[in-house]
Each structure stands twice: as C-alpha cells, then as structure tokens.
Amino acid sequence: MQKQVVTVLGATGSIGCSTLDVLARHPERFEVFALTGAAQVERLVAQCVQFKPRFAVVLDERVAQDVRARLHPFALNTEVLVGAQALCDVSSAAEVTTVMAAIVGAAGLLPVMAAARAGKRILLANKEALVMAGGLMTAAVRQFGAQLAPIDSEHNAIYQCLPCNERGEIDNRAVASITLTASGGPFLKSSLSDLEHITPDQACAHPRWQMGRKISVDSATMMNKGLEVIEAHWLFGVPPEQINVVIHPQSIIHSMVNYVDGSSLAQLGHADMRVPIAHALAWPERIESGVSLLDLAAQGALEFYVPDLNKFKCLDLAFTALRAGGAAPIVLNAANECAVAAFLDQRIAYLDIARFNEMALNALDLATPQTLEDVVEADARTRAWMNAHVLHALV
Ligand code: NAD
Ligand code: MG
User: Fold this and answer.
1) In which residues is Mn(2+) bound (predicted)?
2) Burial of 323 (0-12, 13-18, 19+ CB in 10 A)
C-alpha cells in the first residue's frame, strides 16, 4: 500500500488533534509531512516529537524561535517555517498527497486554495474557506484534479449517503433535498430574553461536541448551521430551497439525503469527529477510528424540532446571504468572525453578534468577486467596516 503523506493545517486545534489521534492508529498508512499551529507552542512541540514531520509552521518568528529551542534536544529533522506563505508551501509541496484543512476562519483560505491548485486530496474542516470562495474552490478542484472530502460531520454524513465515482465525485441527480441536523447548541431551551447576559464560557459550553471557541459560539448562535447550509450548497450542488435544517439534540443522526423516490438515507454515529476524519482519510476503505459503536437501545429516544429563526437569527441571515450570492456570504462570514472575536473578548454582548452581522450584510453591497484576490479584498473591506462602524463605536 502506498502511504499517504499528510499535511495537517491547524494541527494544534480540536480537529487537528483528532486527526493526529486517527493517524497515530495507522502508521502503516500515513506519514506526517507538516504540522501547523498559530499559538499553542507546547502542543505543537509534543506533536513534532511524536510524528517527526519534515516541517512545522507557525505564524511569527518569535514563536518559531521558541519551538526551535524546545525541539533542539530531540535532534529531529523538523524544520520550523514562519508565515502565511509557508502554510501554502506545505499544502502544495510535491511530496504531499493529502491536506487536512483545519485552520479556523478566513485564515485557512489561501492554503486550501494552494492545495487545490496543486491537485491534492483535501479533507475540508475549514468551512469558512468554502463559504467565502465556494465557486472558485470547486472550479480549482475540477481544473487541477484535486479531491474535496468533507470533514464537517453533517457534510461527511451526506457524502456517505450519496453515490460517487472512483474519484469521489458525487452524483446528485436523484436528490430531492438534503436535511442538515443541528444539536441546537447550549441555548436550545432558552428564550430570547434569557440570552441577553450570556458569557463566552456559557456560549462555549456545548452539550455534545468538544470544539474550538469560535465554532462553539457559532453553534450557540446557529451561525455554524448557517455556514453549513452554504457549505452544503457548494459541496453538493443543491439550491437553498432544497436544504432543510432540523434540530436533533442527541446528535446521533449527522444528516440525511432525501431522494425523489421517497427514500431518505442518513448516517449515524457517536458525536466524535474522529468518525468523519477516519472516513475521509481512508476513503474508499474504512479504518478503525477509536470511536465505539452505537447502541441505539441504550441511546433511547431521538428528537427532532424546527429551529426558531427569531432566536437563531444567524441561521436566517445565512440563507439570505446564500440566496443573494455574490459577495454576501463573504461579508457575512467576515462580519461574524469579527463579531465572535469581539464577543469572546467581552467587547460586545451575545445578542450583538446577530445584530452586527445583519447590519454588515445590509450595509455592504460589494461587487461579485471574480478572483481569489477579489475574495480576499471583500473579506478585508468587511473587517474594516466592522472595525470602523461597529466595534470601535463601543469602546
Ligand atoms: P480550533 O480553534 O480548536 O483550532 C484552530 C487551529 O487553527 C489551531 O491549530 C490554531 O493554532 C490554528 N489557527 C488559528 N488562527 C490561525 C491563523 N490566523 N493562521 C493559521 N492558523 C491559525 O478550531 P477547531 O474547532 O479545530 O476548528 C477548525 C475548523 O474546523 C473550523 O473551520 C471549524 O469550523 C471546523 N470544524 C470543527 C469541528 C470541531 O468539532 N471542532 C467540527 C466541524 C468543523
Ligand atoms: Mg458541523
């Protein structure tokens, strides 16, 4: 068997750690080429010692010096590189077969595009990149013979329920609609007025999933599901009116595909990201992920509810942005990243996130981006607008 040579972007995060957990179970299949992380020096060093990558990438020279000093006693061959260009280089290097895209937010866009243009197999967790540049990214994947395998649990579930060819390209011709499940997050049972004084720690206390802080806040507001609606549109070629969202608090059914003949196919499993990660790493085979099998009788009842779009305004905004098209999803994504960061810094209140996202979406009418540079510019203009009009006004 030819080994897969893997770059893990965002190795020190939640998805990055789950990925390395699965890779470590199958050393005969996988070899690590590069690990990247923005801040968590100790974790990155421990990962380098365990996986002995050719490269480690960090964002600034001071962190790089620290990592080099800590790695020195281990006499590894790991070279420590610095900066955004290095992220693109380790994503497109000739030796690499597979790139796990697990950087959070817009910062992941350029390395993912570099991997697509180099024809890599991309395991995509970084949903923000696809929300920003879905058309350009799917076109680059086709043009350069890359592959795109979804890691987001819902999209991985849908992918598992769709027919595809030997390159993993799906056939959506008999699809009537898709149903994304959502846990409903920590505030499913709260009323809108209960949400006024929510703290970052309360918003990050997700009942089912252990995740990074940005996606945890997005899960609480259901912006995460909104981004996933846009992600599903690009991955599966389904229009917004054929994408449904249903709240399923147990997070056992990870999503489903509804076919024209009345059949619905769903994928089930425990809420552990090692399941979709192992699926995408081994596809079209299956490998052990470290996750136990489901016992439905022990699990008990599975519930389903319609989301309240008044309470989860961000989900509604995402449908609006997807229907509007053009730069609207970029604006919404960038505004949301700024608003969530401000909320986590305790500069704005929880309910301000949706309010500011809506203001940005209404205020900014940017030209439809034609190139990657246009996407980056629309993202930057939205962030500048947020800083000037919204966030600075508060301090
Ligand atoms: P996280 O915050 O735990 O990890 C993010 C990683 O990206 C870290 O390694 C961090 O050092 C790195 N990073 C942060 N800012 C960076 C920057 N500016 N440049 C380069 N690297 C940077 O996040 P996570 O929960 O692992 O999520 C990662 C991505 O996967 C997100 O897009 C998220 O939406 C998606 N995702 C996560 C989960 C989950 O269960 N955690 C599930 C589905 C999708
Ligand atoms: Mg998800």
Assistant:
1) 152, 154, 228
2) exposed
Q: Which domain holds residue 367?
A: 325-394
Spatial CA neighbour of 362 closest among 393, 342, 335, 394: 335
Let me know whether 352 and 294 are in one domain.
no
The answer to pTM > 0.95 is yes
Q: Is residue 8 part of a domain?
A: yes
Decide if 327 contacts 369 (C-beta within 8 A). yes
Percent of the chain with pLDDT over 70: 99
- If we measure between CA atoms, which residue out of 168, 93, 102, 91 comes closest to residue 129? 102
**Strands 147-150 and 175-182, sheet pairing:** unpaired
Atom of ligand 1 nearest to the CA of 224: 34
Tell whether 143 and 160 lie within a shared domain: no
Q: What total of structural domains would you count in the chain?
A: 3
Question: Does 127 count as an annotated binding residue?
Answer: yes
Ligand approaching nearest to the C-alpha of 222: 2
Kindly report, residue by residue over 311-341, the tens digit of the pLDDT: 999 999 999 999 999 999 999 999 999 999 9
**Is 278 inside a domain boundary?**
no
The residue from 103, 134, 150 where one domain ends is 150
| 381 shares a domain with 255 | no
Tell whether ligand 1 has an atom less than 6 A from the beta carbon of residue 218: no
Is residue 276 in contact with ligand 1, taking CB distance under 6 Å? Answer: no
pLDDT digits (tens, 9 = 90+) for 243-271: 999 999 999 999 999 999 999 999 999 99
How high is the mean pLDDT of the chain?
97
Q: Which atom of ligand 1 is nearest to the CA of 87?
A: 20
pLDDT band at residue 395 using 50, 70 and 90 as cut-offs: very low
What's the Cα-to-Cα distance from 39 to each of 62, 159, 217, 338, rounded to whole Å?
Answer: 11, 33, 20, 19
Q: Are residues 21 and 57 in the same domain?
A: yes
